[in-house]
Amino acid sequence: MAEPVLEVSGLRKVFGSQVAVDDVSFTVAAGGSLGVVGESGSGKTTTARIIVGLDHADAGTVRIDGRDRDHAGRKARGADAGRGPSVARSARSGRRAERLARARQVQMVFQDPFLSLDPRLPIGTALTEVLRLHHPDGDHPARVTELLDQVGLGTREATALPRGLSGGQRQRVAIAKALAVEPSVLVLDEAVAALDVSVQAQILNLLADLRAELGIAYVFITHDLGVVRCVTDEVVVMRRGAIVERGATDMVLADPSHSYTRLLLESVPGPGWDPQLITAARRALAEAEAELTPR
Ligand SMILES: Nc1ncnc2c1ncn2[C@@H]1O[C@H](COP(=O)(O)OP(=O)(O)OP(=O)(O)O)[C@@H](O)[C@H]1O
């Protein structure tokens, strides 16, 4: 078994009276792929945001490449409190270095690629900016060509603005931007949910190829067990902030032990399903879920 590249332990996050994440722990092996599934509101995105540092946990730890994700930041902030301006300046540059170091550990791809793309920047320029920030000494034009090639894009796309690309192409660019940083872990939050089914399949194939080629580890946040089946080795199922089931993806999907996972599985559309049936199945799932919930 490969060393874990990501170790999430005892994460907890509360918003007001809502426990969004409740004692969540899992590991992802180097080059591994973990699916985090659950219906809307089960705490998936909050878990992802804590892993990438967009949110802080109330309790628990995230270790990437054996390093505690929050430790350096907390230590710097605590030690610098109430000191003079030069210490504050050096603390700021320390925090910047820390942010860059974190970015090189983990990157995130969102459902809506517009969030990570500047509408005014041609794609090639956007990629060059990332390279200048994270890898200032490299051969940037060659690397931009290589990155575009890795995600199945070419010179036409390099000069295009984000609005000149299709949804699938924009998501390829978002993936290229994340890869440009060369992170150990890529967190993908509903990264194919907004795409047509055929484009979804292309992006999932691309992600599978990139993992094999680069050895990057994935955390796939999704409500869609079909996606999990395609691109993950292991899966955790979240419900109401907590993990209710975990295991090898094929085992969990073939023989789920928790009633909630069985409900999720029943809502996965198969061949020949039409959108109305899918909507009806989702409604039935919500009703069944409400029945499972203790009053
Ligand atoms: N910033 C916030 N302020 C208040 N409550 C929040 C905030 N973020 C999340 N929550 C609540 O925490 C719970 C978990 O939300 P989260 O977005 O993590 O779930 P999710 O499984 O990712 O759902 P979805 O698939 O709809 O994004 C929900 O009840 C949500 O309303």
From TrEMBL:
Residues 67-96 are annotated as: Disordered. SMART domains: AAA. Residues 82-91 have a biased composition (Low complexity). Residues 67-80 have a biased composition (Basic and acidic residues). GO terms for molecular function: ATP binding. Residues 6-265 form the ABC transporter domain. Belongs to the ABC transporter superfamily. This is ABC transporter ATP-binding protein.
